[in-house]
Amino acid sequence: MVNENAMGDVMALRLRIQKLEEENNLLRMRIMDGGMAVSENGMGTELAEHGNLSQSAYSSVAWDPFREFSTSSLCGKQRNGLELTLHRTLQRQQTAEAKIKELQAQIDQFKFLVKQKEEDTQRGKMMLRFREDKIKRMEALLKGVFSLETYISTKRDSLLEEVKMLRMRLERNPEVTRFAMENIRLQEELQRYHNFYEEGERDMMEKEILLLQDQLLEALDWKLMHEEDPNCVGKG
Length: 236
What we know:
Largest sheet: none
Number of domains: 2
Helix content: over 70%
Shape: flat
Mean pLDDT: 66
Distance between the termini: 111 Å
Number of helices: 6
């Protein structure tokens, strides 16, 4: 029952890799074996309609469509149609090659996940063995097989190995690594904000306060200068 979920995940990933590799190989065969004559929607038929291709056009000998159709009997409309057909074929080939690269990237990613799952399974087995050894040592201590000092010494060594395995597990866990990187990024961003406040924003706020004070004093002076003298009110 131990690690059944992990083994199931590994098997599912391997089946996924196998299906992706089969799809990848199929696309490669369509490009390499079909060439200009075979395509997903019957490009050979299209070319034959535009140029009345002979059987030699589909032979293993390299075929140059513009050499075959360079005679005067090939009108401009036929040539344009042939060029359009070849252009579409090239586009489909480029699309297939891009799909192959995408599938290969997925295959590599799944293989990496399989490797990680297998390593996690092995580390889980090692952790289980450490626990079983710990139980055996405790039983041996109770039976008086070895002394308390020996038990403490072996327990310390076992705990050191267990800590080492746990550290490896944490370091190889992509989720933990991602959170660690995100934590570092947030700390750096927080430090930048802190530096900005300490070095820049505080000075800027002080300057704005002084400027507002000056503007307020100027406004008060202007108001005092333009207010009417109470003693002059009603004269005239």
